[in-house]
Amino acid sequence: MYRFDEIKGYEEIIQHFQNAIKLNKISHAYIIEGEGGMGKKRLANTYAKVMECQAHGIEACDVCSSCRLFDSGNHPDVIHIHASKKTGIGVDDIRDQVNKDVYIKPYVYDYKIYVIHDAEKMTVQAQNALLKTLEEPPIHVRFILLATHTHTFLPTILSRCVVIRLRALSQKCIEDYLEKDLGIPDYQAKLYASFARGNMGRALALRHSESFHEMRNDMIQVMMVISRKDKVEAMEQVEIFEKYKDEKQDFLDIMLTWIRDLMVIKSLGDLEPLIHMDNKNLLLKQVPYLSYNRISSLIEGIEQIRKYDRLHINYTLLVEVMLIQAMNSK
Ligand SMILES: [Zn+2]
Protein backbone atom coordinates (compact mmCIF):
# COMPACT_ATOMS: atom_id res chain seq x y z
CA MET A 1 0.00 0.00 0.00
CA TYR A 2 1.17 3.49 -0.76
CA ARG A 3 1.35 5.96 2.11
CA PHE A 4 3.55 9.00 2.69
CA ASP A 5 4.28 7.89 6.25
CA GLU A 6 5.88 4.72 4.94
CA ILE A 7 8.40 6.54 2.76
CA LYS A 8 11.78 7.01 4.42
CA GLY A 9 14.13 9.94 4.14
CA TYR A 10 12.25 12.31 1.83
CA GLU A 11 10.44 14.33 4.49
CA GLU A 12 10.94 17.69 2.76
CA ILE A 13 9.59 16.45 -0.54
CA ILE A 14 6.59 14.86 1.15
CA GLN A 15 5.93 18.07 3.03
CA HIS A 16 6.05 19.95 -0.27
CA PHE A 17 3.48 17.55 -1.77
CA GLN A 18 1.26 17.67 1.29
CA ASN A 19 1.33 21.48 1.37
CA ALA A 20 0.36 21.56 -2.29
CA ILE A 21 -2.63 19.33 -1.54
CA LYS A 22 -3.61 21.28 1.56
CA LEU A 23 -3.41 24.66 -0.19
CA ASN A 24 -4.99 23.30 -3.35
CA LYS A 25 -1.90 24.32 -5.28
CA ILE A 26 -0.97 21.07 -6.96
CA SER A 27 1.21 21.86 -9.98
CA HIS A 28 0.13 20.61 -13.35
CA ALA A 29 3.41 18.86 -13.93
CA TYR A 30 6.24 17.44 -11.87
CA ILE A 31 9.49 15.77 -12.80
CA ILE A 32 10.87 13.44 -10.15
CA GLU A 33 14.53 12.91 -10.90
CA GLY A 34 16.73 10.25 -9.33
CA GLU A 35 18.69 7.12 -10.21
CA GLY A 36 17.04 3.69 -10.25
CA GLY A 37 16.21 2.40 -6.79
CA MET A 38 15.85 5.85 -5.22
CA GLY A 39 12.08 5.61 -4.89
CA LYS A 40 10.72 7.77 -7.73
CA LYS A 41 7.82 5.43 -8.47
CA ARG A 42 6.84 5.10 -4.87
CA LEU A 43 6.75 8.87 -4.39
CA ALA A 44 4.79 9.40 -7.61
CA ASN A 45 2.30 6.64 -6.84
CA THR A 46 1.75 7.87 -3.32
CA TYR A 47 1.26 11.45 -4.45
CA ALA A 48 -1.21 10.32 -7.11
CA LYS A 49 -3.09 8.15 -4.62
CA VAL A 50 -3.39 10.96 -2.07
CA MET A 51 -4.48 13.45 -4.75
CA GLU A 52 -7.32 11.12 -5.69
CA CYS A 53 -8.25 10.05 -2.15
CA GLN A 54 -11.88 10.84 -1.46
CA ALA A 55 -11.16 11.75 2.16
CA HIS A 56 -9.27 14.75 0.74
CA GLY A 57 -6.62 14.74 3.45
CA ILE A 58 -2.85 14.94 3.14
CA GLU A 59 -2.40 11.19 3.62
CA ALA A 60 -4.12 8.28 1.92
CA CYS A 61 -7.17 7.09 3.90
CA ASP A 62 -6.78 3.56 2.49
CA VAL A 63 -10.51 2.85 2.81
CA CYS A 64 -12.26 5.01 0.21
CA SER A 65 -13.08 3.49 -3.17
CA SER A 66 -10.29 5.46 -4.85
CA CYS A 67 -7.61 4.28 -2.40
CA ARG A 68 -8.80 0.69 -2.71
CA LEU A 69 -8.81 0.82 -6.50
CA PHE A 70 -5.38 2.39 -6.45
CA ASP A 71 -3.93 -0.32 -4.24
CA SER A 72 -5.43 -3.02 -6.46
CA GLY A 73 -3.62 -1.46 -9.42
CA ASN A 74 -6.85 -0.69 -11.29
CA HIS A 75 -7.40 3.01 -10.71
CA PRO A 76 -9.27 4.31 -13.76
CA ASP A 77 -7.94 7.86 -13.55
CA VAL A 78 -4.24 7.25 -13.00
CA ILE A 79 -2.62 6.39 -16.30
CA HIS A 80 0.87 4.95 -16.59
CA ILE A 81 2.91 5.47 -19.73
CA HIS A 82 5.96 3.31 -20.27
CA ALA A 83 8.87 3.55 -22.67
CA SER A 84 9.41 0.74 -25.13
CA LYS A 85 12.85 -0.83 -24.83
CA LYS A 86 13.84 -0.15 -28.41
CA THR A 87 12.36 3.19 -29.27
CA GLY A 88 11.86 4.92 -25.93
CA ILE A 89 8.76 7.12 -25.88
CA GLY A 90 7.90 8.35 -29.34
CA VAL A 91 5.62 11.06 -30.63
CA ASP A 92 2.83 8.56 -31.38
CA ASP A 93 2.89 7.30 -27.80
CA ILE A 94 2.33 10.82 -26.50
CA ARG A 95 -0.30 11.65 -29.13
CA ASP A 96 -2.29 8.45 -28.59
CA GLN A 97 -1.94 7.97 -24.87
CA VAL A 98 -1.83 11.59 -23.72
CA ASN A 99 -2.91 14.29 -26.15
CA LYS A 100 -5.99 12.47 -27.44
CA ASP A 101 -6.97 11.40 -23.96
CA VAL A 102 -6.48 14.49 -21.79
CA TYR A 103 -9.68 16.21 -22.83
CA ILE A 104 -11.82 13.29 -21.71
CA LYS A 105 -12.83 14.04 -18.13
CA PRO A 106 -11.79 11.74 -15.28
CA TYR A 107 -14.01 8.66 -15.17
CA VAL A 108 -14.85 8.89 -11.51
CA TYR A 109 -12.39 10.86 -9.42
CA ASP A 110 -10.98 14.38 -9.12
CA TYR A 111 -7.98 14.27 -11.41
CA LYS A 112 -6.65 12.48 -14.39
CA ILE A 113 -3.04 11.78 -13.52
CA TYR A 114 -0.49 10.70 -16.11
CA VAL A 115 2.62 9.05 -14.72
CA ILE A 116 5.28 8.92 -17.44
CA HIS A 117 7.98 6.38 -16.58
CA ASP A 118 11.52 6.73 -17.97
CA ALA A 119 10.47 10.13 -19.25
CA GLU A 120 14.07 10.99 -20.16
CA LYS A 121 13.57 8.54 -23.03
CA MET A 122 11.04 10.77 -24.75
CA THR A 123 12.21 11.75 -28.20
CA VAL A 124 12.39 15.46 -29.00
CA GLN A 125 9.24 15.07 -31.12
CA ALA A 126 7.47 13.36 -28.23
CA GLN A 127 8.50 16.19 -25.92
CA ASN A 128 7.22 18.76 -28.37
CA ALA A 129 3.92 16.91 -28.55
CA LEU A 130 3.70 16.80 -24.75
CA LEU A 131 4.56 20.48 -24.60
CA LYS A 132 1.33 21.33 -26.40
CA THR A 133 -0.63 19.82 -23.54
CA LEU A 134 1.67 21.25 -20.87
CA GLU A 135 1.16 24.74 -22.29
CA GLU A 136 -2.59 24.58 -21.83
CA PRO A 137 -3.38 21.68 -19.58
CA PRO A 138 -7.07 20.88 -18.96
CA ILE A 139 -7.97 21.80 -15.40
CA HIS A 140 -8.34 18.21 -14.17
CA VAL A 141 -5.04 16.93 -15.61
CA ARG A 142 -1.78 16.35 -13.70
CA PHE A 143 1.52 14.94 -14.93
CA ILE A 144 4.26 13.22 -13.00
CA LEU A 145 7.34 12.49 -15.10
CA LEU A 146 9.89 10.07 -13.68
CA ALA A 147 13.44 10.39 -14.95
CA THR A 148 16.93 9.26 -14.02
CA HIS A 149 18.28 12.59 -15.27
CA THR A 150 16.90 15.76 -16.80
CA HIS A 151 19.56 16.72 -19.35
CA THR A 152 17.64 15.22 -22.27
CA PHE A 153 14.61 17.41 -21.58
CA LEU A 154 13.88 20.47 -23.66
CA PRO A 155 14.23 23.69 -21.64
CA THR A 156 10.61 24.42 -22.48
CA ILE A 157 9.53 21.19 -20.77
CA LEU A 158 11.71 21.87 -17.73
CA SER A 159 10.35 25.37 -17.33
CA ARG A 160 6.80 24.05 -17.13
CA CYS A 161 7.48 21.37 -14.54
CA VAL A 162 8.31 21.46 -10.86
CA VAL A 163 11.56 19.47 -10.72
CA ILE A 164 12.00 17.34 -7.61
CA ARG A 165 15.52 15.91 -7.27
CA LEU A 166 15.98 12.87 -5.05
CA ARG A 167 19.18 13.15 -3.05
CA ALA A 168 21.14 10.26 -1.57
CA LEU A 169 19.76 9.11 1.76
CA SER A 170 22.03 9.05 4.78
CA GLN A 171 23.61 5.73 5.68
CA LYS A 172 21.88 5.94 9.05
CA CYS A 173 18.46 6.36 7.46
CA ILE A 174 18.94 3.24 5.32
CA GLU A 175 20.39 1.29 8.23
CA ASP A 176 17.46 2.20 10.49
CA TYR A 177 14.92 1.20 7.87
CA LEU A 178 16.54 -2.17 7.23
CA GLU A 179 16.92 -2.89 10.91
CA LYS A 180 13.77 -1.44 12.45
CA ASP A 181 11.24 -1.79 9.67
CA LEU A 182 12.44 -4.94 7.96
CA GLY A 183 13.93 -6.69 10.98
CA ILE A 184 17.29 -7.33 9.32
CA PRO A 185 20.04 -8.06 11.91
CA ASP A 186 21.98 -4.92 12.82
CA TYR A 187 25.33 -6.03 11.36
CA GLN A 188 23.72 -6.90 8.01
CA ALA A 189 21.81 -3.63 7.96
CA LYS A 190 25.13 -1.84 8.51
CA LEU A 191 26.82 -3.81 5.74
CA TYR A 192 24.12 -3.17 3.13
CA ALA A 193 23.70 0.46 4.16
CA SER A 194 27.42 1.11 3.83
CA PHE A 195 27.31 -0.10 0.22
CA ALA A 196 24.05 1.46 -0.83
CA ARG A 197 25.53 4.88 -1.68
CA GLY A 198 22.39 6.50 -0.35
CA ASN A 199 20.11 4.39 -2.54
CA MET A 200 17.50 2.38 -0.65
CA GLY A 201 16.73 0.19 -3.67
CA ARG A 202 20.39 -0.72 -3.96
CA ALA A 203 20.52 -1.64 -0.26
CA LEU A 204 17.49 -3.91 -0.68
CA ALA A 205 18.91 -5.51 -3.82
CA LEU A 206 22.23 -6.26 -2.11
CA ARG A 207 20.45 -8.58 0.30
CA HIS A 208 19.72 -11.02 -2.48
CA SER A 209 22.71 -10.32 -4.69
CA GLU A 210 24.88 -13.40 -5.12
CA SER A 211 27.61 -11.40 -6.80
CA PHE A 212 27.84 -9.11 -3.78
CA HIS A 213 28.33 -12.08 -1.47
CA GLU A 214 30.87 -13.63 -3.82
CA MET A 215 32.79 -10.36 -3.92
CA ARG A 216 32.83 -10.22 -0.15
CA ASN A 217 34.12 -13.80 0.10
CA ASP A 218 36.87 -13.02 -2.39
CA MET A 219 37.85 -9.92 -0.42
CA ILE A 220 38.00 -11.98 2.78
CA GLN A 221 40.31 -14.44 1.04
CA VAL A 222 42.61 -11.62 -0.05
CA MET A 223 42.74 -10.29 3.50
CA MET A 224 43.48 -13.77 4.88
CA VAL A 225 46.48 -14.04 2.58
CA ILE A 226 47.71 -10.54 3.43
CA SER A 227 47.54 -11.41 7.12
CA ARG A 228 49.94 -14.30 6.51
CA LYS A 229 53.60 -13.75 5.77
CA ASP A 230 53.90 -15.41 2.36
CA LYS A 231 54.79 -12.66 -0.12
CA VAL A 232 54.52 -14.88 -3.19
CA GLU A 233 51.02 -15.98 -2.26
CA ALA A 234 50.12 -12.36 -1.56
CA MET A 235 51.21 -11.31 -5.04
CA GLU A 236 48.98 -14.00 -6.53
CA GLN A 237 45.98 -12.14 -5.15
CA VAL A 238 46.39 -9.61 -7.95
CA GLU A 239 44.20 -12.00 -9.94
CA ILE A 240 41.26 -11.39 -7.63
CA PHE A 241 41.68 -7.63 -7.93
CA GLU A 242 41.66 -8.05 -11.69
CA LYS A 243 38.46 -10.08 -11.53
CA TYR A 244 36.79 -6.98 -10.07
CA LYS A 245 38.48 -4.49 -12.35
CA ASP A 246 35.15 -3.13 -13.56
CA GLU A 247 33.78 -2.89 -10.03
CA LYS A 248 37.00 -1.83 -8.37
CA GLN A 249 35.35 0.92 -6.33
CA ASP A 250 32.96 -1.61 -4.79
CA PHE A 251 35.75 -4.08 -4.16
CA LEU A 252 37.95 -1.45 -2.50
CA ASP A 253 34.98 -0.16 -0.49
CA ILE A 254 34.24 -3.59 0.87
CA MET A 255 37.91 -4.07 1.70
CA LEU A 256 37.86 -0.81 3.64
CA THR A 257 34.86 -1.94 5.70
CA TRP A 258 36.80 -5.08 6.61
CA ILE A 259 39.83 -3.01 7.56
CA ARG A 260 37.55 -0.76 9.59
CA ASP A 261 36.37 -3.81 11.55
CA LEU A 262 39.96 -4.93 12.12
CA MET A 263 40.80 -1.49 13.50
CA VAL A 264 37.73 -1.52 15.73
CA ILE A 265 38.72 -4.84 17.28
CA LYS A 266 42.36 -3.79 17.57
CA SER A 267 41.74 -0.48 19.25
CA LEU A 268 38.43 -0.92 21.07
CA GLY A 269 38.17 -4.65 21.60
CA ASP A 270 35.01 -5.76 19.86
CA LEU A 271 32.74 -3.44 21.77
CA GLU A 272 31.60 -1.53 18.72
CA PRO A 273 29.18 -3.26 16.37
CA LEU A 274 31.11 -4.83 13.53
CA ILE A 275 29.98 -4.56 9.92
CA HIS A 276 31.15 -8.10 9.17
CA MET A 277 29.79 -9.54 12.41
CA ASP A 278 28.93 -12.83 10.69
CA ASN A 279 32.66 -13.30 10.05
CA LYS A 280 33.78 -12.20 13.48
CA ASN A 281 35.89 -15.33 14.00
CA LEU A 282 37.85 -14.70 10.82
CA LEU A 283 38.40 -11.09 11.83
CA LEU A 284 39.63 -12.13 15.26
CA LYS A 285 41.98 -14.62 13.64
CA GLN A 286 43.56 -11.94 11.44
CA VAL A 287 43.91 -9.22 14.06
CA PRO A 288 47.13 -10.49 15.73
CA TYR A 289 48.87 -10.81 12.36
CA LEU A 290 48.04 -7.41 10.99
CA SER A 291 50.11 -4.65 12.56
CA TYR A 292 48.95 -1.04 12.54
CA ASN A 293 51.71 -0.41 10.02
CA ARG A 294 50.45 -3.03 7.62
CA ILE A 295 46.88 -1.80 7.99
CA SER A 296 47.78 1.82 7.34
CA SER A 297 49.91 0.77 4.41
CA LEU A 298 46.84 -0.98 2.95
CA ILE A 299 44.63 2.05 3.51
CA GLU A 300 47.21 4.25 1.81
CA GLY A 301 47.44 1.77 -1.05
CA ILE A 302 43.67 1.83 -1.55
CA GLU A 303 43.68 5.62 -1.56
CA GLN A 304 46.49 5.64 -4.12
CA ILE A 305 44.60 3.25 -6.39
CA ARG A 306 41.54 5.48 -6.25
CA LYS A 307 43.54 8.63 -6.85
CA TYR A 308 45.59 7.31 -9.76
CA ASP A 309 42.68 5.44 -11.29
CA ARG A 310 41.20 8.80 -12.21
CA LEU A 311 44.43 9.51 -14.09
CA HIS A 312 44.16 6.15 -15.90
CA ILE A 313 47.36 4.77 -14.46
CA ASN A 314 47.66 0.97 -14.83
CA TYR A 315 45.42 -0.58 -12.20
CA THR A 316 47.26 -3.90 -11.92
CA LEU A 317 50.50 -2.07 -11.32
CA LEU A 318 48.94 -0.04 -8.52
CA VAL A 319 47.53 -3.17 -6.89
CA GLU A 320 50.97 -4.80 -7.05
CA VAL A 321 52.58 -1.77 -5.42
CA MET A 322 49.95 -1.81 -2.68
CA LEU A 323 50.51 -5.50 -1.96
CA ILE A 324 54.31 -5.19 -1.95
CA GLN A 325 54.21 -2.23 0.41
CA ALA A 326 51.75 -3.96 2.72
CA MET A 327 53.82 -7.14 2.82
CA ASN A 328 57.02 -5.18 3.47
CA SER A 329 55.60 -3.17 6.33
CA LYS A 330 56.45 -4.55 9.72
ZN1 LIG B 1 -8.80 7.36 0.33
List strands and helices in order, with pairings.
Elements: H1 11-22, E1 29-33, H2 40-52, H3 65-72, E2 78-81, H4 91-99, E3 112-116, H5 124-135, E4 141-147, H6 155-158, E5 162-165, H7 171-181, H8 186-195, H9 200-207, H10 210-227, H11 231-236, H12 238-243, H13 248-268, H14 280-286, H15 292-309, H16 315-328
Parallel strand pairs: 1-4, 1-5, 2-3, 3-4
What are the key terms here?
330 residues, alpha/beta, Rossmann fold, five-stranded parallel β-sheet, 5 strands, elongated, binds zinc ion
Structural class: alpha/beta
Query: How would you describe the shape?
Result: elongated
Q: CATH superfamily assignment of the largest domain?
A: P-loop containing nucleotide triphosphate hydrolases
Q: Bound compounds, please?
A: zinc ion
Q: What is the CATH first-level class name of the largest domain?
A: Alpha Beta
Q: What is the number of E strands?
A: 5
Q: What do we call the CATH topology of the largest domain?
A: Rossmann fold
CATH-derived architecture of the largest domain: 3-Layer(aba) Sandwich
Uncertain stretches = none
Percent helix range = 40-55%
Put simply, the count of helices is 16
Instruction: Please state the CA-atom Rg, rounded to the nearest Å.
Output: 25 Å
Number of domains: 2
Mean pLDDT: 93
